[in-house]
Each structure stands twice: as structure tokens, then as C-alpha cells.
Amino acid sequence: MPATKQSQTQGEIPTLLVGVDHHCAPLELRERVAYTSESAEEVLVHLVAQSHIEEALLLSTCNRTEVYLRHHDEQKAFQRGLDLVFLDRAKEVKEEGRFYVKHGTEAARHLLSVAAGLESMVLGEPEILGQVKQAAALAEGIGTSGVILRRLARSAATAGRRARGETAIGEGAVSFGYAAVDLARSIFVNLESNSVLILGAGETSVTVARSLIEKGARKVQVANRGQDRADAFLQEFPLASGVAFDRRLEALGDADLVVAATSAPEAILRREDVEQSLRHRKNRPLLIVDLGVPRDVDPAVGNLANVFLHDIDSLEQLIERNLKRRRQEVPRVSQILEEELERLLIWYASLAAAPLVAQLHRRAEEIRAREIADHHHHFPESTHEHLANLTRSIVRKILHHPSSQLREASSTENLHHLAALKDLFRLDEDDEER
Amino acid sequence: MESLLDAAVILLPIAYLLVAVDYGFLFFAGRSLAPRSASFGLRGTLILHIVYLGLLTAHWKQFPAATVPQALSIVAFAIITVYALVEWFGKERSTGFWMVSLAFVFTLIASLMSGGPPEDRELFHNPFFFGHASLALLGYAAFAVAASYGFLFLRLYRELKAGRFSLFFGKLPPLEVLERMMSGALMVGFVALTGAVCTGFIWARDVLPGQWLSDSKIIATLLTWGLYAAALVLRRLRRWQGREMAIVSLAGFAAVLFSFFAVNLWFSDFHSFR
């Protein structure tokens, strides 16, 4: 078991993570160990059927597959987790550096970091938080997550939400599609009321159209030279409508946003074409995003008033600026993760308070009973019952306040109290003697 | 009473500065110093300003627009009231930094210029003065707001044109919203200035027969009014859009400042309030 601590650190959450992500495995390998909801259900049920695994949660996205296990025996849990989740699908995972293992607090910190988007291929990408929540809901739904993993997933969701709400880790577009959306939002009030004309129906056009439609664009027209691709585009986006490529200049007059992504060898929009359309537009602003290489739009179009022309270089500049801003937010996100992790650890430590308090009461009762047994002959028999009740009451009253304080366990101070309690009253030894 | 007024003169620009800093944090760093502190600070400063204007009115027993500092204070108050309404109804706080900073500049100049008591001219007690001065100051405040939105519009417009994205990008409202706010403010300013010119014209015929046509303040104001009127006509006829209107709003505001300060302080006679 690589980099595994053989014995679990005292007070650490008994959690183990085995995972494969974009840092250590190529896409081809990640695809083979990716799980659908159905296959995830199946493997989770198999995992908790193992005697040394008590809880299991599986997170599977296009960039990572991770299994979180609560275990009784770390070594055995690791082996079964690796076999069932990864090696049964791809033996290559066993190769050096193809997977990672994290234990206890480190495993918990990792899930929080994943939910906050710090581990994503694109820093701060928003989808991962939803995927973590889905994975948690799935495990909870089929009963493979229990008190520990449910709480861990909840902490991860809180950390992810806070990271997005309190920092700029998810702000600014970092893809061409969303960069086009950002540009449109800097000019127009809302995308819903704007007309979008897409020139070309290839992969780039589809990606950009997807982002625009996701963010509210409703009036979308596509013009493509080849009918097959145009049909495929219209099939993927049923709310879009087609325009003959030769009639693109007519459609230009109504468009507020034009996305050009064709493989045409020369410009398909010339300055005079756009100038002509501007007259019909009554000078309303026009945003043109040219993603063609070579460029689809004559650069002189950018000199026209109220026309905003952006090419690939311009979009890349915007994306790089946003990524830089996201990178600057990493320390603040890390701070949030540590706060949530501390809350989680306090909660976990508080689980240990109840048995400790019970032990303390047991210990006190034993002392009381022993002392009464040794000395009760000094008192008249008629007072024995009263004496027993009185001493019980004294013990209960003495222990009442410390017991309720320890059960609350709402701060790190109480963790110290628990440790001190164990130490002062030798409560662990008490158990061992038993 | 006077010590209260003196304290308010110092406190007011400090309050505006603090609120502007908080809105600056909100604009540049994406968060205010404490949750909702900028909005609460804005409301507190508005209340302080209302109290100050109330005390001023009670103390001098006249509409507090008899001196340049008093008029500047009213312009600042009008700017911030307009912005508070925009924030309240539009849930739009991204331009707060610019509007509060503008109000801060006006209150700061007002505080630095504030000195002796206002003149006790008979015309200040005339009901026409209240209407005429209120409309003129409302117009100036609206033109200041329009110029601020015009500045932001041009800034964003240039960034979008050049494809070079600064800190401003993604933090300001869209160009269409900036244009709408700028045009709305221009229209309010134009109507108010027209009202001020009309009331002034009617009033001056009675109280200053023959003098008013040679007053440099009136000439400057009429030229400013003409500039805005021409721009609004061209907007209608030549479909002038955001960029042209933004340039007009800045040029017009420069004319307003000229007529407010230069003409008031150096040229005018009966419009000269110090």
C-alpha cells in the first residue's frame, strides 16, 4: 500500500481515499474507471458487503474517480477498494504513480478541496460541487454512507459553497464559450432578448452555442455551408433555427451577437457587409466573436462604431486574466477549507465524548459503591438506603456540569478537555482493565 | 447650533470618504469591509446630510443654497439620493464607488470653501428662489450623475473595443444599462435645467428688469442648456448612441462646472453667491 500509515493516528477520522485523477492518469485510463450512477451503485454495494468496510462513497467525474471508505482495517479496505473500483476495470491503475491514497484527515481535506474546485483541471470550475453532492446523495440513497461519510460530504458541500460565495475562485470565464457569454453580458442587459447568429456548425460552434444557451440565449440561428452539420447542430439544439449560408448577411441585420467559427480560407464577413447591416440596426451595438483560424471576419470591422470584434487572441487574454484572478484566491479558499475541516474534526471528536462521559460516571459510581461498602457498618442500618441515595446524588451533582460541557464539544477547547479527562481519570486504562 | 454646524461640515466629507472606501472594496475586491456595511454606511451618511441641511435651514431661516458651499452640498445630497434610489430599486451596487466618490468630492470642496454666514438678500426669501434654485441644483446633480455614467460607459466601451481587459471588466453593469442610466439622468437634468431657466426668466423679469440678459451666469447656463438640447435632438434625428451621448454628458458637465464655479466666482453680479 503506497505511502500508507500502518496505524491510524489517534483522533483521526477512520477514512481512506483511493483515487485516480487527471494529474496521474491519462484520459484513456480515466474513461475506463469512470462510473455511471448504475455502475456506481453496484460497486458501492459490493464494497460495504466487505466485512472491514463500513461505509463507502464514490465520486466519478470525467477528470476523477475517487472512493472514500470508512473501515475497520485500513490495509484490507485499501486492497478491496483498489480491486473492486479500479483494477477490475483497468489493471494499469496498479502501475507506479497511477493512483493516490490518502488517510484520515488528509482524505477529508482532499474531498473538501475537490468540492471547492481546487483540484479541478480548470481551477474553480463550478460543476464539481454538484457532482460531489450527487455522489453523496447516491451513497446515502442506497445506504452505503453512514454517519461519518455523510458528515464528510456535508462538510465538503459547505466548503464548496463558501468558497464560491466568499471568494472569486469561480468568477470569470475560463473557456471560449463562457468568455463569449461574459463579453455579451458586458454589453447587453440579458441574453434572452438578444439574437445570436452562429456561422459554422463545427465543434467550436457547438461548444459556444452550448454555453450561450445554458446562460439564457433563446433566439439562436445557425448558418453553415454543409447541410449535414447544420442538421446535426439543429438536432442538438432544438430551439435554434437554420439559415442558408448565402443569406447570412440578411440574418446579420437582426443579430446582436455573431459567433464565427468556420474553416473558410478567407473572411466571410467584410467591413462593407457589417456596415450595411449596421444601418438596419439603427446603431445598436453588435458583438462579433471570431473563433475561425484563419479569421472569418475582416479585422477592419472592429473599427466600426458600436461593433465589438473579438478574435481568439482577445478571448485567450480574457481567459488568462480570469485564471490569474482565480489563482490569487487560492489562499483564501484554503483558509475556508481549514475552517470547515476543523469543524469536522471537532464534530468527530465529540462522538468520542459520550462513551467517555459514561466511563467517567461508571468510574465514580464504582468508587462510591466501594467506599459505601467499606464504611457502611459505621452507620445504623436504617440509614443505609438514605446514605446510598445521598452519595449518589453528590456524585451526580459533581459530575453534572463537566459531563454536559463535554457532550457539547463545540470548540477545540473541548477536545483538550476530552484528552485531559482521559488522562486525569485514566479512562482508557479503566477500559483495558476491564 | 453653530458648533453643531461646524462639526457637521467636518464630519460629512469624512463620512462620505469612509463609505466611498467601503464601496471601493466592494468594487475592486468583490466584498465590502463588513456584510452590507456599504449600504448601511450610505443610509447613515444620507441621514447625517439631511440633518445637516435641516440645521442649516433652521439656523439661517432660508433655503440652504445661498452660497457656493451650500449649493455644492445640496448637489452632493441630490447625487447620493439618486444613487441610493438606484441601489434600492435596481439592487445595483456596482456603481456605488463612483457615485459616492463624486459626492465626497462635492462635500469636500463645500467644506473647504465654507466660511462666513450667507448674505441676507431679500431674494433668498422669495418663494421663486426656492423653486429656481432647487431645479437648478437638481439639474446639476443629474448632469453629474450622467457624466459619471458617461465616464464609466466610455471606459468599458474602450476596453471592449480594444480587447484589453482591466479590473473594470466584469465589475461594471453592461453598456446598455450604463447608457440607459446616463440617458435617464441626462433627461432629468435637462428637464430640471429647463424648469430652472423658465422660473428664472419669469422671476428676473419682475425683480431684475433689463439686467438679466447681460448676466454671464445666465449666458453660460443658456449655452449649457443649448448643448444638451442639441445632443438630445441629434439623438433623435441622427440616432446618436451611447458613445456620442457619453461624450456629450462629459462635455456638458464640464460646462456645468464652468458656469457653477468660474462664472459664479469671477464674472457674475447678481448670480454671484460666495
Quick description:
Chain A has 434 residues and is an alpha/beta fold.
Give an account of the 3D structure:
The complex is a heterodimer of chains A (434) and B (274). Chain A has 434 residues and is of the alpha/beta class. Chain A has 17 helices and ten strands. In chain A, helix 4 crosses helix 13. Chain B is mostly helical and 274 residues long. Helix content of chain B is 77%, strand content 0%. Chain B has eight helices and no strands. The longest helix of chain B has 36 residues. The relative contact order of chain B is 0.11. Classes of the chains: A alpha/beta (434), B mainly alpha (274). At the A-B interface, helix 7, strand 10 and helix 12 of A face helix 5 and helix 6 of B.
Features:
A: 434 residues; alpha/beta; 6-stranded parallel β-sheet; 4-stranded antiparallel β-sheet; 17 helices; elongated; disordered N terminus; B: 274 residues; mainly alpha
**Residues in β-strands, percent of chain A:** 5-15%
If helices are DSSP runs of H or I spanning 4 or more residues, what is the number of helices of chain A? 17
Taken as a percent bin, the fraction of beta residues of chain B is under 5%
Average predicted confidence as pLDDT of chain A: 88
Please outline the major beta sheet of chain B.
none
The global form of chain A is elongated
Q: What's the helical proportion of residues of chain B?
A: over 70%
In whole angstroms, how far apart are the ends of chain B?
A: 21 Å
Q: How many angstroms separate the termini of chain A?
A: 35 Å
Backbone structural class of chain B:
mainly alpha
Silhouette of chain B:
flat
Multimeric state: heterodimer
Got a strand count of chain A?
10
From N to C, what is the helix and strand string of chain A? EHHEEHEHHHHEHEHEHEHEEHHHHHH
Give the biggest sheet of chain A.
6 strands, parallel
Structural class of chain A: alpha/beta
